[in-house]
């Protein structure tokens, strides 16, 4: 195995350990959506704190979030993967 293959495997392993799961996000939305549990899981601490103190924007943010969770998880995972690849010196296309 050459150095590039090793770095790619190591980066992919690191990514697998930090990527977020859509099913988990939706489950957290279902169980704790009104207090922003799904947003805490996704690392959106500012918004989740706002949801916590406003009870999900009186429920409006909570209802709207169900439409955007999948896209938000994909965006977060794409960003995390790109960051990890860059940290390992791999250009990800």
Automatic annotation (TrEMBL):
Membrane-spanning segments: 25-42, 48-70
The answer on whether this UniProt entry bears the keyword Lipid metabolism reads no
* A family per Pfam: TM2
Cited InterPro entries: TM2, TM2D1-3-like
The TM2 domain sits at: 19-66
Source domain of life is Bacteria
List keywords of the entry alphabetically.
Membrane, Transmembrane, Transmembrane helix
Q: Does the keyword Transmembrane helix apply?
A: yes
* Location relative to the cell: Membrane
Q: What is its main location?
A: membrane
Membrane topology category = Multi-pass membrane protein
What is this protein identified as?
TM2 domain-containing protein
């Amino acid at each position: 195995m050459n150095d590039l293959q090793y770095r790619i495997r190591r980066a992919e392993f690191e990514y697998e350990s930090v990527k977020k799961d859509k099913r988990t996000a939706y489950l957290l939305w279902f169980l704790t959506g009104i207090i922003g549990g799904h947003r805490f899981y996704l690392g959106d601490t500012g918004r989740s704190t706002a949801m916590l103190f406003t009870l999900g924007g009186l429920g409006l943010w909570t209802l709207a979030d169900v439409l955007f969770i999948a896209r938000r998880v994909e965006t977060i995972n794409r960003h995390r993967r790109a960051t990890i690849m860059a940290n390992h010196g791999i250009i990800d296309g």
